[in-house]
């Protein structure tokens, strides 16, 4: 892999990413709401729900996480609802670095990935050295994917090159693991800044860009996700390189998740409509999706008590 | 920028493959840089989601609505109105002749003299508020009929046409007893009988634009809807009847051009309000020359939509798409001339093409349809004629790759690049889903080009720079200039044209003054 020192910003980026396109707040919010007007019915709904389930990063990021909790979550990831056949698994389980080993073992042979947050998640307020070590530890423990946070303080201070270099360094520390870069859009304040942060992350080597840690409100919203999807599209046209997208936090209902799917379909198209390139960071979404799938299969809504809480 | 390409990711295996409607979900390798193309024809497709026709009642035959009752036409003639999405007959409506028009104008005159002008303004307001509420109550039915008769997507008739029509009635109902505040220190008196002729692109909404201010200011009305789209105006007549509006205050005559001419030429009419083509507008103006009839004309347009290099590009592209493809481009203020600053032209055109691919063309009643049917066969032929002119002129055509339904009048959303100011497709109103893209270098150049048109109805400016917005909009010769948005309408905002796009304003305070004498 390339080492951090050899990664230099492209010439047009050395101006501090001030060339990122402007985002009009009214326009982007109007566009995002237009996706919610699509009517998703019958087999479209069922296929969409299965796709959503298959894109979920089932997440537990709590101070009180234990081996037991993580093992249970992993079982849920592999067997979301065995009562109904043909239900896909989720894409990944997302945990803290110390829980990676447990998750890895529990998920062995399932194909489900283990994602680990790292880099002093969720604040990111630590030195680069600590962040790199945190990342290496997670990878050494077996993480397939690393979810890092950017240094929002530095970003707000206009130190874009610092943010860029840090992402590049973490990317290097990831080795084979895929890197998701969390922008924490709820702390960025404007769509212009979301776009700029997306551009920095992609150019610095992110495999995925991700909205939020889930610890800050607002977390993922449709307009924020749209801004990031459009950044991914522009980057793809510029470089030919696909970048994944992961909205996280605040998506707990199937209907909303389907709206996101519509947005991916109409902004990026077929290639992104799978869990290699699109993920939902969520914990409670899975059961709502399962409930809707069962409703679709049987015609009846079941009580929430029929869906396991792990 | 990286020393070596990043290692591709190992695909995730599904324990149980997902059964998709058309294909299984599987990853595809990233395209090589020379073949970068997004694929919007996805394996996850939208199932049909048609709005139910059963919520709408359409009679087999409609007579004329004169003096509060339905009357057989003296002409004894009827003509068919069809659904342009499948060419099937929906109903037949009376074809009013000059004698019918005379009857309607006399009914309107009598209602004006005996009832309406004497009625206290607050009582007039109550009737208009009642109509507004009833339009809201019957919104679903009106939306379905608007879509069936005109071909516009149900999403638009449901979310735009019908609610905006109701809003116009509400807005002007509020003014009825407050005219002394609209014209401070002046007294107003109504004009008398207003003859109103409306187009086929927004049938119900245009009826509301015309009727609401006329009634609020104390005038009575003879309204003629367009011959291809009479049904929602007739439904509005049913609402007016149900609302117990005094007989003769609103009369609705269906018919074609000759019916319109009979209204325009009737000596008992005090005011003509016309929305339609510049050609007919000129005929009307000639016809009323030498009479004391007042007139407002809202005519054609060829709006310039300008994207500067400092624009919010993605939102500008979306605005341009809505500006030209809203209602299949059957919009007099459609942004049909796009001026893009050369430095961003490539990017904008690429984004426009991508967006074109994600537009859904098809059954107007389907809730997911973005672009419905062209209003009539004649209009489809006009559009096709201009598309072939554009090709002959050497402009580069790009159209959506979507499939069109086998029956009905449909046209793919189309754009032309490499268009010159001297091309006919950049000068003449096409009134269809066809966008002409031109480029420019400097601000002065684009102002000159944008104003270089016989029309001047609307324009759009896209830039993130506030000062530039004011500088540009001030220099545009157009009645409405939108900044960082397009095709936004509000009852409180006046609408109307410069030059051959007509004169007079509808909407807002300005809309009131078109229906009063200020004394």
Write a short abstract of this structure:
Chain A is an alpha/beta fold and 310 residues long.
Describe the structure in your own words.
- The complex is a heterodimer of chains A (310) and B (519).
- Chain A has helices at 25-35, 42-54, 67-78, 100-106, 128-140, 152-156, 160-174, 191-204, 222-239, 254-267, 285-298, and strands at residues 56-59, 92-95, 113-117, 145-149, 178-182, 208-210, 244-246, 280-282.
- Chain A has eleven helices and eight strands.
- Chain A has a single domain (4-306), classed as TIM Barrel, CATH 3.20.20.70.
- Residues 11-15 of chain A have low confidence and may be disordered.
- Chain B is of the alpha/beta class and 519 residues long.
- Chain B folds into two domains: 64-81 and 93-299 and 499-518, Aldehyde Dehydrogenase, Chain A, domain 1 (3-Layer(aba) Sandwich), CATH 3.40.605; 304-483, 3-Layer(aba) Sandwich (Aldehyde Dehydrogenase, Chain A, domain 2), CATH 3.40.309.10.
- Chain B has helices at 98-116, 121-137, 139-150, 154-175, 179-182, 203-216, 231-242, 257-265, 278-288, 313-325, 342-357, 377-392, 424-427, 443-451, 466-475, 508-513, and strands spanning 61-62, 64-66, 69-71, 78-83, 88-94, 188-190, 193-197, 220-224, 250-252, 271-275, 294-298, 304-307, 337-341, 396-399, 414-417, 434-440, 458-462, 480-483, 502-503, 516-518.
- In chain B, strands 14-15-16-13-12-17-18 form a seven-stranded mixed β-sheet, with helices on both faces. In chain B, strands 9-8-7-10-11-19 form a six-stranded mixed β-sheet, sandwiched between helices.
- In chain B, strand 12 (304-307), helix 10 and strand 13 (337-341) form a beta-alpha-beta unit.
- The longest helix of chain B has 22 residues, at 154-175.
């Amino acid at each position: 892999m390339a080492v951090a020192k050899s990664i230099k910003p492209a010439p047009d980026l050395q101006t501090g990413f001030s060339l990122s396109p402007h985002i009009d707040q009214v326009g982007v919010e109007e566009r995002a709401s237009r996706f919610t007007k699509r009517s998703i019915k019958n087999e479209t709904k069922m296929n969409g729900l299965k796709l959503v389930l298959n894109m979920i990063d089932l997440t537990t990021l709590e101070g009180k996480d234990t081996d037991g909790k993580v093992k249970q979550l992993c079982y849920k990831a592999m067997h979301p609802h065995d009562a109904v056949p043909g239900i896909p698994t989720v894409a990944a389980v997302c945990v803290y670095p110390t829980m990676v080993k447990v998750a890895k073992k529990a998920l062995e042979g399932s194909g489900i990935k283990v994602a680990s947050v790292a880099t002093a998640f969720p604040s990111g307020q630590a030195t680069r050295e600590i962040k790199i070590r945190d990342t290496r530890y997670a990878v050494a423990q077996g993480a397939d994917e690393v979810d890092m946070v950017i240094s929002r303080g530095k970003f707000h201070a206009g130190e874009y090159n610092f943010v860029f270099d840090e992402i590049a360094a973490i990317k290097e520390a990831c080795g084979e693991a895929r890197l998701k870069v969390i922008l924490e859009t709820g702390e960025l304040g404007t769509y212009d800044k979301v776009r700029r942060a997306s551009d920095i992350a992609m150019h610095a080597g992110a495999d995925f860009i991700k909205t939020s840690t889930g610890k800050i409100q607002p977390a993922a919203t449709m307009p924020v996700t749209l801004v990031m999807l459009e950044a991914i599209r522009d980057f793809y046209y510029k470089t030919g390189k696909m970048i994944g997208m992961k909205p996280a936090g605040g998506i707990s209902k199937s209907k909303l998740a389907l709206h996101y799917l519509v947005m991916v379909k109409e902004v990026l198209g077929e290639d992104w409509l799978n869990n290699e390139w699109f993920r939902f960071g969520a914990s409670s979404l899975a059961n709502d999706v399962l409930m809707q799938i069962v409703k679709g299969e049987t015609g009846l809504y079941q009580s929430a008590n029929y869906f396991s809480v792990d | 920028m990286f020393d070596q390409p990043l290692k591709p990711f190992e695909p995730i295996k599904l324990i149980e493959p997902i059964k998709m409607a058309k294909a299984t979900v599987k990853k595809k390798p990233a395209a090589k840089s020379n073949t970068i193309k997004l694929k919007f024809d996805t394996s996850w497709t939208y199932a049909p989601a048609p709005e139910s026709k059963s919520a709408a009642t359409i009679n087999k035959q409609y007579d004329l609505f004169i003096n509060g009752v339905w009357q057989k036409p003296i002409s004894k003639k009827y003509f068919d109105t069809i659904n342009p999405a499948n060419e099937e007959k929906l109903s037949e409506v009376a074809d009013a002749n000059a004698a019918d028009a005379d009857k309607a104008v006399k009914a309107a005159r009598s209602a004006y003299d005996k009832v309406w002008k004497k009625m206290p303004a607050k009582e007039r307001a109550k009737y208009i508020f009642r109509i507004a509420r009833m339009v809201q109550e019957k919104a679903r039915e009106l939306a379905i009929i608007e879509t069936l008769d005109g071909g516009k997507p149900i999403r638009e008739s449901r979310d735009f046409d019908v609610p905006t029509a109701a809003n116009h009635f509400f807005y002007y109902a509020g003014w009825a007893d407050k005219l002394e505040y609209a014209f401070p220190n002046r007294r107003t008196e109504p004009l008398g009988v207003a003859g109103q002729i409306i187009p086929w692109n927004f049938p119900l909404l245009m009826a509301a634009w015309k009727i609401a201010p006329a009634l609020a200011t104390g005038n009575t009305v003879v309204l003629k809807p367009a011959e291809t789209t009479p049904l929602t105006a007739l439904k509005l007549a049913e609402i007016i009847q149900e609302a117990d509006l005094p007989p003769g205050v609103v009369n609705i005559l269906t018919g074609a051009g000759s019916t319109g001419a009979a209204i325009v030429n009737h000596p008992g009419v005090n005011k003509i309000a016309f929305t339609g083509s510049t050609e007919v507008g000129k005929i009307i103006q000639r016809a009323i020359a030498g009479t004391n009839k007042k007139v407002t004309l809202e005519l054609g347009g060829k709006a310039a939509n300008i994207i500067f290099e400092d624009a919010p590009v993605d939102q500008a592209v979306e605005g341009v798409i809505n500006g030209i493809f809203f209602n299949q481009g059957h919009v007099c203020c459609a942004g049909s001339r796009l001026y893009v600053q050369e430095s961003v032209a490539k990017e904008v055109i690429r984004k426009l093409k991508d967006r074109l691919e994600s537009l859904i063309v098809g059954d107007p009643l389907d809730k997911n349809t973005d672009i419905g049917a062209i209003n009539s066969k004649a209009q489809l032929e006009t559009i096709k004629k201009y598309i072939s002119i554009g090709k002959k002129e050497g402009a580069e055509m790009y159209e959506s790759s979507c499939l069109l339904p086998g029956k009905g009048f449909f046209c793919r959303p189309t754009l032309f690049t490499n268009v010159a100011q001297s091309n006919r497709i950049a000068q003449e109103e096409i009134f269809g889903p066809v966008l002409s893209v031109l480029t420019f270098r400097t601000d002065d150049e684009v102002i000159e080009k944008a104003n270089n048109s016989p029309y001047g109805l609307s324009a759009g400016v896209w830039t993130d720079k506030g000062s530039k917005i004011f500088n540009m909009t001030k220099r545009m010769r157009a009645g409405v200039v939108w900044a960082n948005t397009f095709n936004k309408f509000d009852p409180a905002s006046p609408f109307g044209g410069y030059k051959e796009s007509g004169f007079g304003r509808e909407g807002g305070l300005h809309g009131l003054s078109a229906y009063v004498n200020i004394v």
